[in-house]
Design a protein that fits this description.
By secondary structure, the protein is of the alpha+beta class. It has 3 domains: 100 residues, 2-Layer Sandwich (Uridine Diphospho-n-acetylenolpyruvylglucosamine Reductase, domain 2); 126 residues, Uridine Diphospho-n-acetylenolpyruvylglucosamine Reductase, domain 3 (2-Layer Sandwich); 224 residues, Vanillyl-alcohol Oxidase, Chain A, domain 3. The protein has 17 helices and 19 strands. The strands form 4 sheets. Strands 12, 13, 14, 15, 16, 17, 18 and 19 form an 8-stranded antiparallel beta sheet that branches. The protein has a 5-stranded antiparallel beta sheet with strand order 5-6-10-8-9. Strand 8 and strand 9 form a beta hairpin. The protein starts with a helix and ends with a helix.
Length: 471
């Protein structure tokens, strides 16, 4: 990492810090001897096995203020946990203080204003459940168990991003506890530089305790494509999909996966877990003839193994992949932004997928453009507005004995795709902690210096500096 001192654990007077926190927090303070310690330090990615000194499970913003005040006094390494679903496991740290927001729940929807305010422990599944009562949505992640906080602060890819933008593009305001313990509202009008940093570069700016989103008319049902093609036609389908994606309207967000056939009742059982090419797309508007016409090119890429396309509840769509990424299994993901997907890049992707170590491992190609590209390049800290694609190499496995093999495959595949990259990496798919130094410039691009300046202005003593340097 570029700042070794910031990343190193400091000697923490754990008993004194614990006493300070217990005397001021309404929420629970969990130390190493607590019966719930192992549960409190566990995150979605079972590869992450960190042992914090203390977990401050905050009940509200006032608890966060007290936790930040205690952290300023005792100076532990600090990490912040929202949903705990991030690949690199940055929600937990070794021998430091975890400011845990995961129990801070609640979503308030104003259907007339088309806005929603959600606390930082809310997941996208919980958020969508409330907003869909009014047929409204903010663009969220592709797995309903993902927390709104980490995804949004890192940008926020989702199934309808070409129609409505990244998750961070729908932000109206945030409540942030900065390093001095001040509760601030950040928006375009108030603390605009803090608001800029939070949209794509939000690690290390403080502790965001709530998010206010603009909502968009969508649902309760949407038209979606899911077509499975034989893996033997992978290169052909990839090239055809690339060409179709290039002319897709902004109402369509195409996606392609090299993965295993799911255990879906619409697919013959003998095909389950076999390699295939999955073509997916979602229409960001009402289902009907216009949606079917816009999606048709995504369904016409050759004879399929199965066509599972149709109209589905938006909430069901958002949760459809969650079961394929269960809590506690082991994951490693690393990505490239790309301006083009030429034939040699296609061949390289297919070749490396053929070497995957487990049936759970996959390669995902997501299409940007549309509303993502209509935001000005410097209007938010997200640094890759002009990229056309994001290619993510995603290893998944269960057996710890496969750690080196699975991670080695993903790293090697990522290296092989580097010549085709535009030089950028998505922070939410950026590897593990040891990747931070190599990738930091690739994550923030030309915005890195401005982010540093903003963080220093709100955190001159570097309380959240170690968090800022994590992927």
């Amino acid at each position: 990492m570029p700042d070794t001192e910031a990343a190193m654990p400091r000697a923490v007077p754990e008993e004194a810090l614990a006493h300070e926190l217990r005397s001021s927090l309404h929420g629970e303070v969990i130390d190493r001897g607590h019966p719930g310690y192992d549960e409190a330090r566990a995150v979605w990615n079972g590869l992450i096995d960190r042992h914090p000194a203390l977990v401050a499970r905050c009940s509200g913003t006032a608890d966060v203020v007290e936790a930040v005040r205690a952290a300023r006094k005792f100076r532990p390494v600090v990490s912040v946990r929202g949903g705990g679903h991030q690949v690199a496991g940055s929600a937990v740290c070794d021998d430091g203080l975890v400011i845990d927001l995961s129990h801070m729940k609640g979503v308030h929807v104003d259907p007339a204003a088309r806005t929603a305010r959600a606390r930082a422990g809310v997941t996208w599944g919980e958020f969508d459940r409330e907003t869909q009562l009014y047929r409204l949505a903010a663009p969220g992640g592709e797995i309903s168990a993902t927390g709104i906080a980490g995804l949004t602060l890192g940008g926020g890819f989702g199934f309808v991003m070409r129609t409505f933008g990244l998750s961070c593009d729908s932000l109206r305001s945030l409540t942030v506890v900065t390093a001095d313990g001040t509760v601030r509202t950040a928006s375009r009008e108030e603390e605009p530089e803090l608001f800029w940093a939070a949209r794509g570069g939000g690690r290390g700016i403080g502790v965001v305790t709530s998010f206010e989103f603009d909502l968009h008319p969508l649902g309760p049902e949407v038209a979606a494509v899911l077509v499975l093609h034989p893996y033997e036609r992978a290169e052909e389908v990839l090239r055809a999909w690339r060409d179709a994606a290039a002319v897709a309207p902004d109402t369509v967000t195409p996606e392609l996966l090299l993965w295993s056939v799911p255990a879906d009742p619409g697919v013959p059982a003998e095909l389950h877990r076999a390699s295939c090419v999955m073509v997916g797309a979602v229409h960001g508007g009402p289902p009907g003839d216009d949606a079917a016409a816009a999606l048709a090119p995504q369904r016409e890429l050759g004879p399929p193994l199965a066509d599972l396309s149709g109209t589905v509840p938006y909430v069901a769509l958002q949760g459809a992949n969650t079961w394929r990424f269960p809590d506690g299994e082991r994951y490693f993901m690393k990505s490239h932004f790309m301006d083009d997907l030429g034939d040699e890049a296609v061949r390289t992707l297919v070749d490396w997928y053929s070497r995957r170590p487990t049936p759970e491992s996959l390669i995902v190609v997501r299409t940007l453009g549309g509303a993502v590209a209509r935001v000005g390049p410097d209007d938010s800290a997200f640094a890759h507005r002009s990229a056309r694609f994001n290619v993510s190499i995603d290893a998944g496995w269960q057996d710890p004995a496969l750690d080196d093999t699975a991670i080695g495959w993903a790293r090697s595949a990522w290296d092989a795709m580097k010549p085709f990259s535009s030089g950028g990496t998505y922070v939410n798919f950026a590897g593990l902690g040891e990747d931070a130094g190599e990738l930091r410039g690739a994550v923030f691009g030309s915005h890195e210096e401005r982010l540093e300046h903003t963080r220093a202005a709100y955190d001159p003593e570097g309380l959240f500096r170690s968090a800022a340097y994590r992927p």
